[in-house]
Amino acid sequence: MNDLNHPILQQSFAIIDREIGKHNFTAAEYAIARRVIHATADFEYSRLIQFTPGAIASAISSLRQAVPIVTDVTMVKIGVATLVKKTWQNPLISAVELAPTAIPGKTRTETGLLQCLDSFPQAIYVFGNAPTALFALCSQLPHLTRKPAFVIGAPVGFVNVVESKQALAETSLPHILIQGRQGGSAVAAAILNALIILAWEASEFDSDE
Fold first, then answer.
1. What is the mean pLDDT of residues 142-149?
2. How many domains does the chain have?
């Protein structure tokens, strides 16, 4: 994880720290929000990002147990693959890649997501693009005996995006979401990468005790 100490990255973080000033985030929440801002150069995310109680702890625990990670699209998978490989090598699955064709009336990503829920119901689920897939997860929850460990809800766009995030907000799943229309693959990947780093730092602290 030595690349985390790259001078340009540290300089960028210092600029963000200076410009964001005082805030109400916990240390862990701020580490995540700062990485999203770094990925987007958009300080609006400091207002849009939301954490449910215990979400970060749930994510860290799941990552350290090598729980599978399901992303909605390939771009999110690519964005987190390097850190996943360097740490616990969690199985990494892109929902859209599992669905060469879509179920009639559904998108390919939604179709693949339903397959993932059958095979990996307790996975970490990361959405950076497809609100249809996030809707599918939320609608299937009452039928699942095993629930997702943690969810990142950051699809981007205009159609059903806000509604899909509201559906996630109304569940009891531990999650981090981006309010409104903003989000995207880079944002979702930044959130998960920040969580992987936090989990890795926690494991190093445990080993020093």
1. 96
2. 1
User: For residue 111, what are its two tokens?
Assistant: 């179709």
Q: What is the pLDDT of residue 205?
A: 60
Q: How confident is the model at residue 6 (pLDDT cuts 50, 70, 90)?
A: confident
Q: Is residue 161 in a domain? A: yes
- The full DSSP string for 145-203 is SS--SEEEE---SSSSHHHHHHHHHTSSS-EEEE-TT---HHHHHHHHHHHHHHHHHHH
The answer to whether the pTM exceeds 0.90 is yes
Question: What is the CA angle 59-68-153, rounded to 5?
Answer: 50
Q: Is residue 78 scored above 70 in pLDDT? A: yes
Beta carbons of 161 and 181 less than 8 angstroms apart? yes
CA 147 to CA 117: how far, in whole Å?
A: 9
Q: What is the CATH number of the domain that holds 92?
A: 3.40.50.10230
Residues serving a catalytic function are 38
Distance of alpha carbon 33 from alpha carbon 137, whole angstroms? 25
Q: Is residue 30, in this structure, part of any structural domain at all?
A: no
Give me the domain span that covers residue 98. 47-208
d(CA 121, CA 117): 4
What is the pLDDT averaged over residues 96-125?
95
